[in-house]
Amino acid sequence: xxxxxxxxxxxxxxxxxxxxxxxxxxxxxxxxxxxxxxxxxxxxxxxxxxxxxxxxxxxxxxxxxxxxxxxxxxxxxxxxxxxxxxxxxxxxxxxxxxxxxxxxxxxxxxxxxxxxxxxxxxxxxxxxxxxxxxxxxxxxxxxxxxxxxxxxxxxxxxxxxxxxxxxxxxxxxxxxxxxxxxxxxxxxxxxxxxxxxxxxxxxxxxxxxxxxxxxxxx
Amino acid sequence: xxxxxxxxxxxxxxxxxxxxxxxxxxxxxxxxxxxxxxxxxxxxxxxxxxxxxxxxxxxxxxxxxxxxxxxxxxxxxxxxxxxxxxxxxxxxxxxxxxxxxxxxxxxxxxxxxxxxxxxxxxxxxxxxxxxxxxxxxxxxxxxxxxxxxxxxxxxxxxxxxxxxxxxxxxxxxxxxxxxxxxxxxxxxxxxxxxxxxxxxxxxxxxxxxxxxxxxxxx
DNA sequence: ACCTGAACACCGTTCAAGT
DNA sequence: ACCTGAACACCGTTCAAGT
Lengths: 218, 218
Fold this sequence. Notes:
By secondary structure, the first copy, chain A, is an all-alpha fold. Chain A contains 11 helices and no strands. Chain A folds into 2 domains: 40 residues, Homeodomain-like (Arc Repressor Mutant, subunit A), CATH 1.10.10; 142 residues, Tetracycline Repressor, domain 2 (Orthogonal Bundle).
């Protein structure tokens, strides 16, 4: 007879492990994703993890690629502007669902399969739409810069200490000596209905307009 | 007579400490910036650090703000497009000199004085150039998205394992099944003279063109 | 084949003590 | 006022051992 405190065998797998890691990062934050906490959540001892992955980095690689796997793959031979808009919104949404992903991307050493598939799809759309190789490089770099950077700003805004009211927050910063920020806050940011995220569609349209110029000129 | 192994007193200061932290992050990487390593480099015991800062987060806040302090402050009443181009290039350069800064920005809870001064200067330029409050918000969000996101991509590209030749690298990824990436690599990225960073000026011009549209329409 | 216990070399940080 | 020693509660990971 087996001890009741012993976990059943063969229940751990790479997939279960990666799914649990992603859930833990989403619910408790990336700093709570430790091998020990992950094991404990799976009802297993820390060292059991290492039977399914070589090290923690492999887990981080996997959850970053899982985020790419959630994004829309644009189709060639469909209107390129709408396809790229949809894929860019989809990346934006995925990075908002998993705000820890951006930080991890900086230190990944190899792109995963979903990342590569996403890359391939975007390249195919641009090349099929008639972008030259050079214009494709510039277009892709600029569009991805926009979506990554926009999400980064959203993460930064979310991490700013929001204890107390917005007025308290602004009072805490030294807005005396910064009249434009004070004006901008009072007359725009603190007005009802303002949302940083509303700039996303404006910026996206602006960048897509620029891509069309690139496509025409090359 | 004092023991030779004892560090002289009063040599530690907040400034020396922050400068040493920035140097350490630049030279050895952000993961090498530990309280213990920092203390050792300053010829002091770890706990001496805590006499000048409350905790490690305060050091990270300080070195992030030091990066902002290196960036160009745009002037109002000068041609706004050239001023913002110069400031954007300057942010790009600073983030390339200190590639660890982007990752830290995501978790900072309060903007430092140099960060606020930068914010103020950009707002003043946009408002003085005739951007409405709404257009200013969209313009600033889009321009910063571009530069942060572009730098993030550069950090990501730098962290990709570059052991061996570029051909080995591409062979390591599964480019079979990804014909567009294979084509793009062979015919463009691997050609002599290609550099990812060349897309920066193109994207910047594209975004600034878009800002001019925003300024006119609002 | 899969899981565990104990240990190692690290962290940031508290607390009490020295000069 | 400024610095230190020892200790605590954490990490990821190695190694040898259990079933």
